[in-house]
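Long-time lurker. I teach an intro course on protein structure, and each term I like to show students one example going from raw sequence to a predicted 3D structure in token notation. This year I'd like something fresh instead of my usual example. Would anyone be willing to generate the tokens for the chain below so I can use it in lecture? Attribution to the forum is fine with me.
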Amino acid sequence: MKATTASPAAETQSATLINENAPRRTFLARFQRWEWMLVALIIIVGVLNIRLSPFFLNAQNISRTSSDFMEIGLMMLPMVFVIITGNIDLSVASILGMSASLMGLLYNSGVNIWIAALSGLVIGTLGGLLNGLLIARVRLPALVVTLGTYAFYRGLAYVFLGDQAARDYPAAFTYLGQGKLPGTLIPFSVVLFVVLAIIFGIVLHRTVFGRYLFVIGNNQEAAIYSGVPVARIKIIIFTLSGFMAALAGLILAARFGSTRPDIGTGLELTVITVAVLGGVDINGGVGTMSGAVLSLILIGLMRFGMGLVNIQGQVQGVAIGLLLILSILVPNVVRQFSTTKLRNNRSSVLVGLAVIAVLALFLVFFFWSRAPVIAGV
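-- Reply from a regular --
Happy to contribute to a lecture. Here you go:
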């Protein structure tokens, strides 16, 4: 017998019926829009930073710190696609290093910088394609595949450059990471990120391809039986992740003005943190591009503010980690409030709220406790 699949018209009719029969959203259900919470946190962090440091609103400082996070932002865009499908890519920072290192090797060998940069983009894209093929065609778990290529690609970076460094890039290339729009303090990398974020957002929320990502993340088996080209989509998004990681590697090398094989080490965890903090469910099926962008802004402001008051990187990691825990706890607690099992789960909900309150207060008092340090500057 031939397997029957639902037509697009039938799916649309089914979705309409679900929306018509769904209960009216309560205030708490509306609060699940994590983007509004991120906006509130951005405002709070901004006010605290203004209170703590007179240098926070300095235009030069803002311009410089914004460019510091653009490589993370570029890798975050396809990571949202990957996580929404229920997968993960731990190799992005290694692809960044591999691509930048190959470019540096070729440039040191006398190759034109733009040909070297194009070669870096190609090898990064091929690295992402390899990930996608192993995951989609060989059907290996994404975690296992990208954990293996995480080490493999970083190893290739060391093969390319060894203990050496590539430097003295031409000004036309370093403009990618250091340049600003003529007559402004807006970094070129920020403009590039904004343009790409809009494109990725449109693809995710306004195209059939984007809807397929959510369908795969919610139920991959149902997506396969419904005729969704799951394998092809996985290959596309992992290849895209490799390309964007390579692009981030070129911009990071341009911003530093040099390349070493350890460039970008550890950035993969920050990229994943930004996506998850932005409301992208690590289990797949849920997420927005706007939430991920707001998350990037929030983490950027937090790190910038803590850097102004000389807070150590380890402590910054604690604050970011607590914020990530909040991002996971709050939506889950709110969902418990909006379910019919509230009476049975009342105690667990109250415990969850108490934990959230303690963590939130810790963050607030942590920032304010640094005020005397700034007052004495």
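Some talking points for your students: Confidence is low (pLDDT under 50) at residues 1-32, 371-377. The longest helix spans residues 230-256.
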